[in-house]
Amino acid sequence: MKIALSLSLAFLGATSTWAAKASSSSVQRSTNLDIVPDKFIVEFTDESNSPPRGSGVTPIDRWACRQKFTVTNHGETPQTYTLSHVPAGTAATVDPNTMFVVDGPVSLLPDFATVTFNTPKFTLSPGQSHDVVATITPTKVDAATFPVYSGFIYVTSGSESVHATYLGVAASLKDKAVIDNINLFFGVQLPLVLDSVGNVQEEPTFVGEDAPTILWRQAFGSPHVRLDSVPSNTNKPKAEKAASGLQRFSLVLDAAETTVAVLRSLNFPSAIFGSLACKLYGNSRYPKDADILVFPTSQDMDAQALKRLIVASAPQYYYLKNARDPAATYRILWFRSSSGRECKVDILVPGTTGMYLPTIPPARIHWTRNLPLAPFPFVLLHKLKAWAENRVAPETYKRVRQATDAADVHRLLEITPHIRELQKNPAWWTDEELFDAHLQMHSVIHVRQYCAEFPERAELWRALGFDVPECATDSTV
pLDDT per residue over 58-68, tens digit each? Predict the structure, then answer.
């Protein structure tokens, strides 16, 4: 049974728009004067348009918070009391452009709440008490920032002064997104259903340790969160999926063709590899972005310098975006089509650490659709390398890619014309123009790991010249 994840939230207790509280620790007392706070009472200024008290769903401009407290004269003579308000900080706690709270330290805003009193000045005889109602109204700022207001209410009599504090949120907590449902932190859209080793799955068997694990992340607090696993009925019709894939493929092709043209105008040869090259060689899966290996004419020209040149050459199509990792020093190149659709373009150069990327001779480049493709053997072994590295990556967003990488490798192995050419030369993977000694060595290991994971495909690799043991397991590599 395929399953889909359903999340429901229940806010327990009060969910009123203005969350305010006074306690004994927030109240000062003196010899002759007490301020005794009653419970905070949320009342709506516009009674005709307001929902029932405490529902917390009215806009900021329709409500005010009323605080009732009692002033008692414990002195021996009549006293005149004056009420005043001293605002404290107002903090925007949520980034309005995202669903996430603002990283500290949180800066304070000059937009303070206003406070009015039913009787701002009054006189009490000895032993007499008076109820005061303070109406606290926030300034109209962006509710999407969930601004937190605070301040002090002072009661002064002669040289004696005491105060109580207030604190409130001028927004409805029911409007705050609680579950992170974007791909910012993990590189894949959350929430996810994972198997026992961290791979994304849709059909758990519930046999042995194969039970679903939920990967989810809260963007905000909630007293109660419920997760339901339900049958999946969200699959798109095949025709709709195909149309969506073709549209994405058209965008990626546009990004690749435009980027290659810009690079040629700058006299930089290049070659397409990765998922786009797989597709152009005959893979059925539609790629999501373009991977381009560029061959600079100067050793001083690294990938970041190339990206800046591309943006400067065609700013109407390209821009740079910060990497997901805030500690990263590189930026990511994005292509924006004339229709406004966007696609990531990965630029790499020979010598990139851990990539084993050579400078491919022009005669080895295969041209199709005005695009220079890296040789098929190069594309195959680098896709295999991606699978091997992603399956053991500590980052979840990388591990979830291994299933797609494995499927890409399988499809490449079934592209008969190219595979037959490789079978004619069993030592093709030792070609030093395409594979240095490190990649040759690692390819042997990666093939055995792949065959241990998918033993039914071992014969395909043996036909390509690799020595794969009959009972290949991870322990044998």
Answer: 333 344 577 78
